[in-house]
Write a structure and sequence with these properties.
alpha+beta, seven-stranded mixed beta sheet
Length: 169
C-alpha cells in the first residue's frame, strides 16, 4: 500500500524537474501532443498561470523522492468556466504503474472544493488506455470523443475528454 506520499505547491526551483518528467513522456506518444521535448523557458508562462489558491501545481513526493506532478488548469479561459478545471498528472518513469496515479487523482478530487472547482476534465489520447482506466475508475465519464484530431509520427490519434462533477458548490 502506498501511504508515504506528499504534495507541495511547486515553486520556480521545481520547474526543471517538472519539465524533465514531462519530457520523459514525449517519446511514448501516449501522453502529450508535444512531439519534441520542451525547454524550461517554454514552460515559464504555463508555470505562472498556476496559483496555490485556485489553480495549483503540485510536486508529488513518494518516500521523500519527487515522483511526479499534478496541475489544475483553467478551462477555456472565460469567467463562466471558473469552476471547471483540466487536471494533468505526470509521473517519473520509475514510478509509473505502482498505484500512485490513484492516490494523486483521489487527492486532487478531494481538494477541488477548496479551489472552488466543481467539474474536473481530463484530456486523454484515446490510445492511452492506462490513463483512461484510471479516470474511469474514479467515475469520470466520457463527455467527448474527438476522432483523429492529433497526428503523432504520421498516425492519426483520437482525443477523449473525460469529465466528473466533483462537488456541489
Amino acid at each position: 500500500m502506498i501511504d508515504n506520499i506528499t504534495f507541495k505547491d511547486a515553486n520556480i526551483e521545481d520547474l526543471p524537474i517538472i519539465v524533465d518528467i514531462y519530457n520523459s513522456t514525449v517519446s511514448s506518444r501516449m501522453v502529450t501532443a508535444d512531439t519534441e521535448p520542451v525547454s524550461i523557458d517554454d514552460r515559464l508562462d504555463w508555470f505562472k498561470e498556476h496559483n496555490s489558491s485556485k489553480r495549483p501545481l503540485w510536486i508529488v513526493e513518494y518516500e521523500g523522492e519527487i515522483c511526479g506532478w499534478v496541475s489544475f488548469q483553467s478551462f477555456y479561459g472565460r469567467p463562466a468556466y471558473n469552476r471547471t478545471a483540466e487536471i494533468s498528472i505526470y509521473l517519473h518513469k520509475d514510478f509509473r504503474g505502482k498505484g500512485l496515479g490513484q492516490k494523486i487523482l483521489n487527492k486532487a478530487i478531494e481538494e477541488c472544493p477548496k479551489f472552488e472547482i466543481d467539474t474536473l476534465l481530463g484530456f486523454i489520447f484515446g490510445h492511452n488506455e492506462p490513463s483512461i482506466r484510471l479516470f474511469l475508475s474514479f467515475d469520470f465519464e466520457k463527455w467527448a470523443h474527438l476522432p483523429q484530431v492529433a497526428e503523432l509520427d504520421g498516425i492519426k490519434r483520437d482525443l477523449v475528454i473525460l469529465g466528473k462533477k466533483v462537488s456541489s458548490l
